[in-house]
Amino acid sequence: MRANVWKELENYFLILLGTALMAIAIQWIFDRVGLITGGFTGLTIIIRNLTEALLPGGIPLWLTNIVLNIPIFLYSYIRFGKNYIGKTGFATILLSVWLYLIPVIDMSGDDYMLAALFGGAFTGIGMALVLKAGATTGGTDMVAAIIQSHMRHYTVVQVMQVLDAAIVILGLYVFGLRPTLYAVVSIFVSTKISDAFLEGFKTSKAAFIITNRYEEVAERLMDELDRGVTGLHAQGMYTEEKKCVLYCVVSRKEIVRVKEIVNDVDSSAFVIVSDVREVLGEGFLEYSDDF
């Protein structure tokens, strides 16, 4: 029971920190140079810019974010129930609170590349922390889920991509081509960083080895590298010959030695090497409550 309480507290702390980083990216970087990276946050920047002529400073970002999300949350509550909203409601409100509290600072000046890189980095880390806590910040995520519930032949991701692309195109109309191109760079950076945080930074290598001398190769891999090797029963579809394919996961620096061993035993062997993330088990990452 106590472990569950601490886990929930940890999740809310992650949401607190993640939304703060996202708000910093919006207030200090994106809003200053007009980088529209999609989502309701991008829409709030567009609305603030368009209303500057009517209201000094335009409509505040935090206010627009709340106003846009209120009908979405009400509809989601009616359609999906209160369990669906959960932490996402907390994250959405908290993001608006941070946008209200964090002072406006011009962090990147007129350097669009710095804005794209650091804005993407802050957003990517912040979003990863929020997602790790089992929440989102509402916005186009929920809109996409609502639309997909009526259009089942599309996925939520597909609908969300269309919505975000439309917001980016709207940003092109409001801010011009240059900020929009750098916004694409920022989207790429934030996606890569978010994936890295969620999937883990420690990458390993997996090798599939097809050789007629599989027993000798497997023995040397186990003896010299102290790594486990799995034999997979396979059949060549051209020759219809039964084969044993060796599967072995090693660290990045050990893959060189794997290829040397295979080449030494059977220079005609066929080897496929691929990247893997978060290898759990003996010799790699240990299991924990986060996995």
TrEMBL record:
Cellular localization per UniProt: Cell membrane
Entry's transmembrane regions: 12-30, 59-77, 84-101, 113-133, 154-175
Membrane topology: Multi-pass membrane protein
Domain DUF2179 residue range list: 227-281
Listed GO CC annotations: plasma membrane
Coiled-coil stretches noted in the UniProt entry, renumbered to this chain: none
Main location: membrane
Entries under PANTHER family matching the protein: UPF0750 MEMBRANE PROTEIN YITE, UPF0750 MEMBRANE PROTEIN YITT-RELATED
Protein name: DUF2179 domain-containing protein
